[in-house]
Write a structure and sequence with these properties.
By secondary structure, the protein is mainly α. The protein contains 21 helices and six strands.
């Protein structure tokens, strides 16, 4: 507890300040000081002084980040969003296009060779005003101990999965210093809540762990930083202490989140709560339900001409792809189904929001199954063994909803997390070569791969809330011609809502098992990993001379050496599951 003293005429009165009140006072002080730093940025005409005030404000924001990201996710995103248009498409009548604002916009404007002072002042004023609003209106009244523990765990995971990747600081690459600031903020939270610890050894473990993480973050520059060792030895140790803290504080959580509470490793098949990604009740990957789904998945009689099944385009032996540039009857490459359940949005253009919805689309598609849902149900009913199995598994008669449910359960089971990389992260093996570790560090650092393909899934599901799978415009060409390159004709997401700013946008897929899932891109244009990395190294479409106004992939060359490209490929091959 802390005590504030107030002077009175005849005596001193002591008011006890709770941990929560102390936390709120400090949080609001940082918000206010950040706004003042930004005001000073606008007041000075000296560009170098503006940069000093920017960095001061940015670090104060990072001190607020653990709490702000939890308390007010929308405003946190406002402050920290990428400098690209934000498109929200609810339906044809509700499409919102929002210009980016916040620190990343300020950073890219301020550190441009030709600073647009009018735009800079506008952005700085927006952010400063927002800080003052939050300082005045934010309340901590509802926070309980389980909220504090959520705040701590989210911050630990956010540093590991986005903070150290350059996601937040694309120009300055100041990610390590910013991550140190976040850890200092966590240390302050832990210190304020010292009295909650019944076991003081756990409290001391926290202080030691945080100091160790801060020291490690300060060891190297952005490009040389050993992200593999940081996550394996620091992030996972922090999660272990966090779990001990949950027990020590005797906290019970009111509901489950995307990541299971008792995990101490981000790279296992126990990490994610599969129920977070489905509306199914109970255990969606119950063994008999998965087995039934597998039978349906491989059953050709469920298509109109009884000549194709789900497995026709998603062959188990080919890591649930078909090795074709474009699957028969479709206009796009068949993506792997490994880890497909762990995302928000399905198909390359994210046109459905659930696995069950994806199955409906395939069944109804005249170029695929070409059946109605009622006809699908009749096909299943024709087989007595299915009638018996559905009664055994669901204690219900067959209907098309349960058919979709079972197939989805099979797909949900395809999350093994047993690749060489996973087993090393789990401590079950110590077999990664230095080249493979170098490749992971490049993927998470200089290569900027992990700013779109987020670990641990290495897809577009954005940590730490895992509510959105990103769409990106990287500018995939229609051929391998690099001299007269042209953008592929497929308009991607645009075809769903006809939003002009969404032309050529596609969902970010996983790169897990990428060694086994060629050809690559939505049109299957690239057949080797070397070609894929060369495309990104050039700067995507822009590097090929294709100008696209809304390209989200940074157009700057990565300047990877031939050795670094080899490191990246070596790492990518460690993501191949044993199946």
């Amino acid at each position: 507890m802390a005590f504030f003293t107030f002077s009175c005429k005849k005596k001193e009165e002591y008011k006890e300040i709770s941990s929560l009140e102390k936390l709120e006072i400090q949080f609001k002080e940082n918000l206010w000081n950040a706004s003042i730093a930004l005001d000073k940025l606008n007041e000075t005409s000296n560009i170098e002084d503006k940069k000093v005030y920017y960095l001061e404000a940015r670090m104060l924001f990072k001190s607020c980040e653990p709490i702000l990201a939890f308390l007010d996710a929308d405003n946190y995103i406002f402050f920290n969003q990428p400098n690209i248009l934000k498109i929200e498409e609810e339906d044809f009548t509700d499409v919102k296009i929002k210009e980016p604002s916040g620190f990343q916009v300020i950073e890219e404007t301020l550190y441009n060779e030709n600073v647009n002072l009018v735009e800079l002042e506008k952005q700085v004023t927006l952010v400063s005003t927002k800080f003052k609003f939050l300082h005045k209106n934010q309340t901590f009244n509802f926070l309980k101990n389980h909220h504090i523990l959520w705040i701590i765990r989210d911050a630990i995971n956010r540093v590991a999965l986005t903070g150290i990747t350059g996601f937040d600081s694309p120009v300055l690459e100041n990610s390590l210093e910013e991550s140190k600031t976040v850890y200092l903020a966590l240390k302050e939270i832990i210190t304020i809540y010292e009295n909650e610890f019944r076991n003081k050894e756990i409290y001391q473990n926290w202080l030691n762990q945080i100091e160790s993480s801060i020291a490690f973050l300060g060891n190297e520059n952005f490009e040389k930083f050993d992200r593999y060792s940081f996550i394996k030895n620091h992030t996972h140790e922090a999660l272990e202490i966090w779990n001990k803290t949950v027990t020590d504080w005797k906290v019970e959580f009111p509901f489950k989140q995307a990541i299971n509470y008792d995990i101490e490793n981000l790279f296992t098949n126990e990490t994610f709560n599969i129920n977070y990604f489905t509306d199914q009740k109970g255990n969606p990957i119950q063994e008999n339900k998965v087995a039934l789904g597998k039978l349906l998945f491989e059953d050709k009689s469920l298509s109109n001409k009884k000549d194709i099944s789900c497995a026709t385009c998603h062959k188990k032996e080919l890591y649930f792809t078909d090795e074709l540039a474009k699957s028969p009857g479709t206009t796009r490459n068949s993506p792997t189904l490994f880890y497909a359940a762990l995302q928000k949005g399905f198909f390359h253009d994210k046109r459905t929001g659930s696995l069950e919805g994806q199955i409906i689309d395939v069944v109804n598609n005249p170029n695929e199954f070409h059946l109605s849902l009622n006809d699908l149900e009749k096909r299943v009913l024709e087989k007595s063994e299915y009638v018996d199995l559905f009664k055994k598994v669901y204690q219900k008669n067959i209907n098309n909803h349960l058919i979709r449910n079972a197939i989805a359960s099979y797909i949900m089971s395809l999350t093994p997390f047993n690749s060489k990389f996973d087993l090393n992260m789990q401590g079950k093996e110590n077999t990664l070569t230095q080249n493979e570790i170098n490749g992971f560090n490049l993927f998470m650092g200089k290569g900027k791969c992990a700013t779109c393909h987020f670990a641990p899934l290495f897809n577009g599901l954005v940590p730490t809330q895992f509510k959105e799978s990103e769409l990106e415009l990287i500018g995939v060409p229609k051929s391998k011609d690099t001299i007269n390159a042209e953008i592929d004709d497929d308009l991607g997401r645009y075809n769903i809502y006809k939003t002009a700013e969404r032309k050529y946008f596609f969902k970010t897929p996983t790169v897990r098992n990428i060694e086994k899932t060629a050809p690559y891109m939505h049109n299957g244009i690239y057949t080797t990993l070397e070609e894929v990395i060369d495309f990104y190294n050039k700067g995507g479409a822009s590097g090929l001379g294709i100008e696209l106004e809304y390209q989200t992939l940074p157009s700057d060359k990565l300047n990877l050496t031939n050795q670094e490209k080899e490191y990246l490929i070596a790492f990518l091959k460690t993501l191949t599951d044993k199946y």
